[in-house]
Amino acid sequence: MMTKQCCPLLIAEDSDEDFEVLQVLMEQMDVQNPIYRCTNGDKVLDFLYKEGDYDNLDVAPRPSVILLDLNLPGTDGRDVLEQLKQDQNFKEIPIIVFTTSSNPRDVEFCYEKGANGYLIKPIDSSELEKTVQAFVNYWLQVNTPPTSKSARAKKHA
Amino acid sequence: MNHYLEPIHFSGSIQPHGILLVLSEPELTVVCVSANIQEQFGISEDLLNQSLSTLLDVQVVDAIRQSLHLIDSASPIKLQESILVSERSFNGLVHRTENFIILELEPTLPLGLFSVPAFVRRAFTPVGCVRRTIAKLRQVSTSHEFLHLLTQEIRRITEFDRVMVYQFDQHEAGTVMAEAKRDDLPSYLGLHYPATDIPEQVRALYARGLLRFIPDLTAQSISLVAASHPLMQQPVDLSLAILRGVDSCCVEYHQNMGVAAILVIALIHNQKLWGLISCHHQTPKYLSYETREACELLGEFVSLELAKKVNSEELDYIIKLRSLQSEFVESISQVDNLKEALVNPAPRLLDLVNATGAAICLEDEITLVGVTPTIEQVSVLIQWADTQVKDALFHTDSLPKLYPEAVVFKDVASGLVLLQISKVRRYYILWFRPEVLQTVNWAGDPNASITVKEDGSITLSPRQSFEKWQETVRLTSLPWKACELDQALDLRSAIVGIVLNKADELARINQELERTNQELDSFSYAASHDLKEPLRGIHNYSMLLLKGYESVLDEVGKNRLQTLIRLTRRMESLIDVLLKFSRLGQAELHLVPTDLNQLVNQVLEDLGVSHQDIQPDIRIPRLLPTVVCDPVLINEVFMNLLSNAFKYNDKPEQWISIGYLDKEGTRDWEQHERGRIFPHSPTPSLSDSRITFYVQDNGIGIRARHLETIFRLFKRLHEQNLYGGGTGAGLTITKKIIERHGGQIWVESTVGMGSTFYFIL
């Protein structure tokens, strides 16, 4: 099954190594979606609100899925999650938390704030591969993302 | 012998050495006269119903008439002029009763019986002597010296054989505090006598500050002859009469002591009768009015001065107690151990209320200080006293009278102060005082002053007084002073304050601890996250190398990369354990009644699946009980202990035994439901006690020197490649879980024979 080219994936990840491994894995899995990366929380918000470096529409399309690391420099991933899920414009965008933390408190917090999934980054590469594969299969292939139109319609309602 | 019923001041008789006239007012007609006026003083007129001027000069009568308004019923006033009757010179003394004026005539010079007083010979005025005495008395500081000097001075002025100062205690029993006497007489110093030795009415008269003078106890008393006057139906009140007759008991009492003349001066302190200056003489002895007046003045001075001395000594004592208290409190507030602070140094606690023994009861631990009953006796006493306490304090100076069981330890604890610091926590301090009889200081032997009558008749004597007094003070201690009881209460406030402070401190520490815990939590969280990220990088890059550069790397290189990957996995498991361990301390326990049989079976099933090579023989001698615990955590306990039992065994025939001990080492647990046993048929019900469980194996055992260290985090006894490896955290986590449940864990082992892990839940 092909992944959807039209659906941009936004990855919030501060670790270059993690991101590179992620890229390698997604390449292997033949992911066609355009991938955007933000290295801190503020940039994620700028990306979505088209502020700062991202005031150009072409540079920052509305993502269909966000893969969010929790521990981000600057604005924390938890704050980013909370803010986006409270915003009428963005709350439909699926946000999948992708983090090292297996702390039950974090898991609970994220679902409370409206996260659509919670994936733990394993250290073991084969485990990691399975996790990324599951993400790609579900969120980039099987799942139907919300359209940006429905978001706009809500906005004018 | 009962003194209390006889109204002595209405005795209707006088002593023979003077004349007493009762006069109507304002006519000054004689309505009553003492019978000796004719026999003794040779006055032949029948004075009854006559004007006073029949007997005395008109000027004298006029003088009395004009000063009628000055005559009161406080004390007799001496007329300025001496009065001549039948060529004899008299002092006239007047005072007022309810209905009459009483005029007493005392000869200015004693009659034949009496020796001439010293002052006449020495040409010193009594007032001059008194003034000099006062000057001397002002020089001394302590009340002990003061009283001693006083007796000597009074003796010098009066020349009586014996002068004593008595002091009354709160029960009106008396003690001889000071004495000056003829050398050949026995000493009465330190003697105690019961309140009954001085009749109530006499005591009341003394309390009015009056002086009592009986120059000859053996003299025949003189009756009064009254006219038929409407107001004379009642006996005349002779309370204030200097010549008042002597009660027969008083005569007998003093004669038993070989005393023929007495002079008694009241000492008043705070409007109460504090004591008496009592002068005895073995032969009849007359004192001039001036000398008596001088003694009376001296008594008033002494009363005032004594009040100052007593007050200042009391004050000194209070100040001493106060400073002791503040030192004490300061030292208590600086130590953590309340008991230690109270007990050391030992005398401090006793000095605080002037006790000879004390017991400190902190919950069920009793510590004794000084001379006390036994711990068992104190323990039972507390139970009784607890019911008597009002406002945190109970005190008695006669414990055995309230609590008969105390008779057996009356010698050490007739007096008790019980201070309740905390009823809830059972914190008490008890102070003891011995029976007073144990503390009487003898300056002289009371038996030495005794002349036992051969006829065995019961008469009063110093010894009998003393014996009677002993009866009254049996089973009592010296009384507790108000200031001492205040000290006890102040100490309580201080301790409560300190304990409260400590509680505040504890709360602060707890807050701090909570903050530290939160920090630790965020640290371990951050650590797990931040450490794992580079670890993941190392791991994944090693993988990328292995996969992408397979053709470039030789076998050694590939092996090393594999090792790198293995090490990252190991490091991850260590980080996970650390994280888990740090969370254990903070996670709330979810306590529910848990059937351990089910729990253990589940664990064994899981283990059996993972250890398929050898299946040890599992022995569970009897059904396990249901306990209240956090099943997830206790599952982990059994998982760790049983997996160790599985792993560390190299015997061909392996067995593991799981069970619990019969009730022993039972401890009460106050508030928590933890560990409470729920009756669960058919398991034995060991209600309300903790249970000691065990997991025993016949495995490799543990050396004695490692029995403690195995519980340390990451402490391993064996190489990683032996016995299935592991992080060395299982037992640490197990111990922490047990401790979170309020229990403890320990191990007994014989190398090569096996180990038994015990834990109390």
From TrEMBL, chain A:
GO terms for biological process: phosphorelay signal transduction system. The modification 4-aspartylphosphate is found at residue 69. Keywords: Phosphoprotein. InterPro entries: CheY-like_superfamily, Sig_transdc_resp-reg_receiver, TCS_response_regulator. Pfam families: Response_reg. The keyword Signal does not apply. The keyword Phosphoprotein applies. Residues 8-136 form the Response regulatory domain. This is Response regulator.
TrEMBL record, chain B:
One of its GO terms (molecular function) is phosphorelay sensor kinase activity. It holds the Pfam family HATPase_c. Residues 526-761 form the Histidine kinase domain. Keywords: Chromophore, Coiled coil, Kinase, Photoreceptor protein, Receptor, Sensory transduction, Transferase. CDD domains: HisKA (cd00082). It comes from the Bacteria. InterPro entries: BphY/WalK/GraS-like, GAF, GAF-like_dom_sf, HATPase_C_sf, HATPase_dom, His_kinase_dom, HisK_dim/P_dom, HisK_dim/P_sf. Its EC number is 2.7.13.3. Residues 142-300 form the Phytochrome chromophore attachment site domain. Residues 499-526 form a coiled coil. SMART domains: GAF (SM00065), HATPase_c (SM00387), HisKA (SM00388). It catalyses: ATP + protein L-histidine = ADP + protein N-phospho-L-histidine. GO terms for biological process: detection of visible light; osmosensory signaling via phosphorelay pathway; regulation of DNA-templated transcription. It is an enzyme of class 2 (transferase). In the N-terminal section; belongs to the phytochrome family. This is histidine kinase. The lineage of its organism: Bacteria, Bacillati, Cyanobacteriota, Cyanophyceae, Nostocales.
